[in-house]
Amino acid sequence: MNRNELLKIKDETYKCFDEKSSIDLNLFESIIGYDDIKKIFKMSLSSDKAVHILLVGPPASAKTLFMLEFLKLERSYFTLGSHSTKAGMIDYLFDFRPRYLLVDEIEHMPYKDQTSLLSIMETGIITETKSQKTRSTQLKTWIFATCNNKEKLLSPLLSRFIIFHLKPYNLSKFIEVSNGILIKNDVPFDVANEISHVVWNKLKSRDIRDCIKIARLAKTIEDVEWIAKTLNQYRK
Questions:
Q1: How would you classify the pairing of strands 162-165 and 100-104?
Q2: How far apart are CA 230 and CA 124, in angstroms?
Q3: Is the pTM of this model over 0.85?
Q4: Last residue of some domain: 110, 139, 165?
Q5: Are residue 104 and residue 214 in the same domain, yes or no?
């Protein structure tokens, strides 16, 4: 790397580090519980240097909801690990210079894209060589990600994250979260509570999404009972 290239990186570093991103004070208001994790996320956002966080856990444990909340922030980019970008993650980083990179189900990200994240997470510098030409740049990018199975991730990538393991809901937590989400979406308490109990006890589901699906159909407690009965009739 020659002197001019180093000076370019230095200039871009100062520009990037001088940029300020406003943090929404209402961030995470749609997520029930996890107040301690919310606090860690906000501490990360306030840090002078990027702190990367990975949420590991079963489906429907609010992992994706956290990622969607970060879309409220300026210069944020959301992607599914299985999609990344057609050209590759490193091209996206060079072209769009996101401040917040949000990766849902990062374990499905191709290994070449996982590898491309290693340097930026450690030093903020990304370098690529194509056709005997090298390009480099400096970014200040926070990476927040989720996964269901961290065994599919490269060990060096895991070591760069703060990792939280989210546990499956028990009955009381499931009812609390489900009721909270449904009531926020204008579902009457008695209907919301019935949906929560029916999904847990009769459908034997632990997925909050099932509560939301039924809530979109049901207007009364009788509707909830009938929908659950119908769903059970057509199960394997």
A1: unpaired
A2: 54
A3: no
A4: 165
A5: no
